[in-house]
Write a structure and sequence with these properties.
The complex is a heterodimer.
Chain A (H helix, E strand, L loop, with lengths): L3 H9 L2 H4 L5 E2 L4 E9 L7 H17 L5 E6 L7 E6 L35 E4 L5 H12 L2 E2 L4 H48 L1
Parallel strand pairs in A: 2-3
Antiparallel strand pairs in A: 1-6, 2-4, 4-5
Helix pairs in contact in A: 3-4
Chain B lengths: L7 H4 L4 H5 L10 H17 L22 H11 L9 E9 L8 E5 L10 E4 L5 H9 L3 E3 L1 H9 L6 E5 L3 H7 L2 H4 L13 E2 L2 H8 L2 E7 L2 E8 L4 H21 L7 E9 L2 E5 L20
Parallel strand pairs in B: 3-4, 3-5, 5-6
Antiparallel strand pairs in B: 1-8, 1-9, 2-7, 7-8, 9-10
Helix pairs in contact in B: 5-9
The chains are: A alpha+beta, B alpha/beta.
GO molecular function (chain B): structural constituent of ribosome
Family (chain B): Belongs to the universal ribosomal protein uL1 family.
Organism (chain B): Pleomassaria siparia CBS 279.74
C-alpha cells in the first residue's frame, strides 16, 4: 500500500478540488453537460482537454447530481464543443427526469422531448480556446454562482504551496548528493576495470 | 600482478579526481602501509551490528489520518472520475491487515450482491464429451476440453481469465507441461486454490459474477463496484466483502492472529480514501445526488 504519509498529503491537497477555478454551482435548470473533443491536442483541442482535466472535477464536485459526459474522437478536425442541456421543469429526479425540454432560445416550438433533450441549450465552441475562457463562457451562459475560497482555505493553500517549494528544494539536494555518490562509484569501477584490462 | 590488487581498496577513499591523475602512481611505493589499511577495511563489516530483521509489516497510527464516510468518499471519487468511461473505471477496496510477513495469507473467492464484472471467461479442463463437460458448458464456461486447450496454451493463446480442472483430468493436466505458462499468470489449477473440483458446474456458477481476492504484502485488494453504483449498492457490496474477509480471518485464527487495520476505498483514477466505517455524516450530501449516472 502507498505510504500513509504520502496518501495523507495527497488527501490534504484535496483542497484543490474544493476551491479554485471551476468551483461553481449551477442553477437548478442545468440538467446535463456534454463535451466533445479530440483525443490529442492537435488542432486546437488543448484547452478543451485542460478544462476537462483541471476544472471539470471541481464542477462535478460542486454539482454531483449533474451528469457530465466526455466524448473523445480521433479526428483532429472534428468538433470541439461543450454542450449544456437544461430543462424548464425543476428536476424532481435529477438526471433521469423524463420531462426535459430544451429552452435554449426560449422557443417553445419544440415538443417536450422524451428521455434526453434532443438539442443543447447552449453550445460553446472550445477550439483554440484557453481553459479559463471556456470556464468564463460557461459561467456567463448558465449564470452559475462562483464559490470564493474562504480565508482559512486560502491560508492552507499557501501552506501547501510553501511545502511543495520546500520539498522541491530538498529533492534537488538529495539528488545532487546521490549523483555525486554514484559518480564516485562509477569512477572506482572504471579504475578497477582498467586494472583488469592491463592484466 | 598480485601486488597491484590491494590498491583497489585504498583508491576508494580517494576523491574521484585523483584516480585519473598521475598522483596515484606515486603511491605505488608504499605497499606495506596500504595492505594494512586494506585489512582494516575488511575487518570493518564484521564489526557492524547485524540488522535485526522484522517479521511484521510496518504499522502506522491512524489517529491523525483523515478518514471519510462512504458517501463523502464516493462524492470525491465521482468528481475525480468525471468524463471517464464508466464501464472501465471501478471502485476498489484496499484492506490493510496486521499480520506476519511470512505467515499464511488470506485467499478466497466471493460473490458480491452486485456483480462488478460480468463478462468473465472461464476455461474448464475435463474430458470432452463427459457429463462434466456438458454441465460446464451449461453453467457458462467459455472453453471446455482437454488436449485442444493444452495445445492452444502452448501456442500462447490464452483467451480466458479463470481456469478450473476436473479431478479426473488433473493427471493429464500435470503431464501436459502447461504449468510453466499458466503458473506465472496464476491460472494453473491446483487443490490449494480450490480450482480442482469434481463438481464443475457449481464452481463455474460461483465464478461467473464472483471475484477472487488474496493478501499480498499485508494488503487485500479487490474491485468492489462499478462507478454507476449508488451508495446503497456500494454499502451492501462493501459489507459483503468485509464479512467474508472477517470470516476468513476467523478461520485461520487458531494458527495466527490477523486484524483489520485500515480500509481504503479508491478507484481507477482517484486517490485512496481511508474509510471510517460510517455510511454518511451530517455534512454529507444526500445520497440521491450521487446515485445518478456519472
Amino acid at each position: 500500500m502507498v505510504h500513509i504519509v504520502k496518501r495523507m498529503r495527497k488527501l490534504r491537497e484535496l483542497l484543490w478540488i474544493r476551491v479554485g477555478p471551476g468551483a461553481i454551482i449551477f442553477p437548478k435548470e442545468v440538467s446535463r453537460i456534454r463535451m466533445e473533443f479530440n483525443e490529442k491536442i492537435a488542432g486546437g483541442h488543448r484547452g478543451a482537454r485542460k478544462f476537462w482535466r483541471d476544472m471539470l472535477p471541481r464542477i462535478k464536485y460542486r454539482n454531483p447530481s449533474v451528469p457530465m459526459e466526455v466524448a473523445r474522437h480521433k479526428d483532429k478536425d472534428g468538433p470541439s464543443i461543450l454542450e449544456i442541456y437544461t430543462n424548464t421543469i425543476k428536476p424532481a429526479l435529477p438526471a433521469s427526469s423524463s420531462q426535459q425540454t430544451p429552452n435554449g432560445q426560449a422557443s417553445s416550438s419544440t415538443e417536450p422531448s422524451t428521455d434526453t433533450p434532443q438539442k443543447a441549450a447552449h453550445t460553446i465552441d472550445m477550439r483554440m480556446a484557453q481553459e479559463s475562457d471556456i470556464l468564463a463562457q460557461l459561467i456567463a451562459r448558465t449564470g452559475a454562482t462562483v464559490i470564493k475560497a474562504t480565508e482559512a482555505e486560502l491560508e492552507e493553500l499557501a501552506e501547501i504551496e510553501e511545502q511543495k517549494e520546500r520539498s522541491e528544494k530538498d529533492r534537488v539536494e538529495v539528488r545532487d548528493k546521490l549523483m555525486a555518490q554514484r559518480r564516485e562509484e562509477e569512477m572506482l569501477k572504471m579504475a578497477r576495470g582498467e586494472i583488469v584490462a592491463e592484466n | 600482478m598480485a601486488h597491484i590488487r590491494p590498491f583497489s581498496a585504498p583508491l576508494s577513499r580517494l576523491g574521484a579526481s585523483s584516480i585519473a591523475s598521475p598522483v596515484s602512481c606515486t603511491r605505488l611505493s608504499s605497499i606495506p602501509y596500504q595492505t594494512i589499511r586494506c585489512a582494516a577495511m575488511k575487518a570493518k563489516p564484521a564489526q557492524q551490528k547485524k540488522k535485526k530483521t522484522r517479521n511484521t509489516f510496518i504499522q502506522y497510527d491512524l489517529k491523525r489520518a483523515d478518514q471519510f464516510t462512504l458517501v463523502d468518499a464516493m462524492h470525491y471519487i465521482r468528481a475525480f472520475e468525471v468524463g471517464r468511461n464508466p464501464s472501465s473505471s471501478k471502485y476498489e477496496m484496499h484492506v490493510k491487515v496486521r499480520t506476519l510477513k511470512n505467515g499464511p495469507v488470506v485467499r478466497n473467492r466471493l460473490r458480491l450482491p452486485h456483480a462488478v464484472k460480468t463478462d468473465i471467461r472461464i476455461c474448464v479442463i475435463c474430458p470432452p464429451g463427459s457429463k462434466a463437460a456438458a454441465e460446464a458448458k451449461a453453467a457458462g464456461a467459455s472453453l471446455v476440453g482437454e488436449d485442444e486447450i493444452f495445445d492452444k496454451i502452448k501456442e500462447g493463446v490464452i483467451d480466458f481469465d479463470r481456469c478450473i480442472c476436473h479431478t479426473d483430468s488433473l493427471q493429464k493436466l500435470n503431464k501436459a507441461g502447461v504449468a510453466r505458462i499458466l503458473g506465472p499468470r496464476g491460472l494453473m489449477p491446483s487443490n490449494k486454490t480450490g480450482t480442482v473440483v469434481s463438481q464443475v458446474a457449481s464452481t463455474v456458477q460461483n465464478m461467473v459474477g464472483g471475484s477472487e481476492y488474496r493478501e499480498r504484502l499485508g494488503v487485500i485488494r479487490m474491485a468492489v463496484g462499478q462507478l454507476g453504483f449508488t451508495p446503497e449498492q456500494m454499502q451492501t457490496n462493501v459489507k459483503a466483502f468485509m464479512d467474508t474477509l472477517k470470516k476468513d480471518i476467523a478461520q485461520m485464527s487458531d494458527r495466527i492472529t490477523k486484524e483489520i487495520h485500515e480500509v481504503v476505498l479508491s478507484s481507477t483514477n482517484a486517490p485512496g480514501f481511508s474509510l471510517n466505517g460510517e455510511f454518511r455524516n451530517a455534512n454529507s450530501i444526500p445520497t440521491k445526488d450521487i446515485s445518478g449516472p456519472l
